[in-house]
Write a structure and sequence with these properties.
The chain has 465 residues and is α/β, with parallel strands linked by helices. The chain has 3 domains: 254 residues, Rossmann fold (3-Layer(aba) Sandwich), CATH 3.40.50.620; 117 residues, no CATH class; 47 residues. It is 43% helix and 16% strand. A 5-stranded parallel sheet has the order 5-4-3-10-11, sandwiched between helices. It has a 4-stranded antiparallel sheet with strand order 6-7-8-9. A hairpin with a 2-residue loop joins strand 12 and strand 13. Helix 2 packs across helix 3. The longest helix has 20 residues. 42% of the residues are buried. The chain binds adenosine monophosphate and zinc ion. Adenosine monophosphate binds next to helix 1 and strand 10. The site of zinc ion (ZN) has 4 residues, from helix 7. It holds the Pfam family CysS_C.
Amino acid sequence: MPPLMLYDTWSRALRPFVSIEAGRAGMYCCGPTVYDHAHIGNLRTYVFEDVLRRALVRNGYQLRHVVNITDVGHLVSDADEGEDKMEKGSRRTGESAWTIASRYTDAFVSDWRALNLLEPSIWCRATDHIAEQIAFIVELERGGYVYRTDDGLYFDTGKQHSYGYLARLDRAGLQAGKRVALGAKKNITDFALWKFSPVDVKRQMEWDSPWGRGFPGWHIECSAMSAKYLGTSFDIHCGGEDHIAVHHSNEIAQTEAAYGTRLANFWLHGRFLTLSAAKMSKSNGDFIRLQTLRDRHIDPIAYRYLCLTAHYRSNLHFTWESLYAAQAALNRLRHAYARWRQKNALADARFVARFDAEVNEDLNMPNALAVLWDLVKSDLPDATRRASVDSFDAVLGLGLRDWTPLATEIPEDIQALLDERARVRLEGDWAKSDALRTTLQLRGWQVEDGRDGQRVLPFSRNGAE
Ligand code: AMP
Ligand code: ZN
């Protein structure tokens, strides 16, 4: 296998991946803020991270994968102002912040599993690690990086020459441009480590600390928990591209200040899923989640397939048409795979080598899918194709082995639509034929036009959804 090349945001270059400890790799992925459901944009990032994880395993690494759950301290504004997102969620729904955190954590884990993402070695919640976060801040205080204002403790980025390198931040420019927004902070890039509970409002989530009652800032949880589970210098840190400028820059600052280590050896960032030119965001309230797809009879794995069609370092522009196309491709693949009988056969070495070369070239999954389709269409024996696809699926994670076709009994109303479509096609009414195809899609059936007429395949997985 060629070496695994990964694009490291820190060095802005492709670098061959080598782990700190031979044969083992540690990976930390910033997880969800659980004040609402995850949207499919968030989920794109986790799919990318899952593919990375599978690629590492394929390259022989034993992995320790840590994912955090942010259930306190993420404020509405990245500048550490405004309400805590959890408390805001509580006001929105009338339920306690704790109830909301637990509900949306469960929902997140269920999305995670529906996308066939491998279970992390450790899920860790910020609220379960308050003591570790306080201890970390004490360490920073000892080093002289902390100052106090009326509303909390702040990290003094002015004390750190290297601050913002990951994002190539123009600190002088930022400082000059945003003097007005500075408030009690010394530098525009300073960030909260600990916020005091307001005197006039009772917070639901608050803890005692050496500095007064309050709650941790958002960034400290990741430095504290990654140090606990992976050490203060580990192999790979990931997240979405929005984390580069603030969250990851701040995590790096904290760990470097406390321990003098470079938090992670590789920094990988996934570009955003976009929707109608805007980025998809939880906070504007208008977002698509996995359930929205299921409501349209789209299997979550089809969304996973869609994610694989774009390189993780390119934006993926979401459209329903592209999702239906992904579902159709997945359907075709599943049916082809299910037709190939399982026999003792080896994967085709040439195809596997081509596939691995694409994966190892910074996870070029669109090209890896092209290799997959070349294989499917090849004239290799069925059993060889099946064994090869099994091997690919260890990285693709489409769960092909677990899928079984539904008993394809076509309900009467669907058959009626099909008959109608066959009729309008005979009349050459292609517009009507396309409209009927869409109607069938919305009901969960995919039509394919072959030489012998139309063929219909149900979308749903194992009949489960
Ligand atoms: P959050 O729950 O907001 O803390 O975000 C969880 C993860 O989703 C982070 O890694 C974000 O960088 C990522 N993310 C947020 N919005 C998008 C998007 N539109 N596309 C891809 N990833 C995103
Ligand atoms: Zn983080």
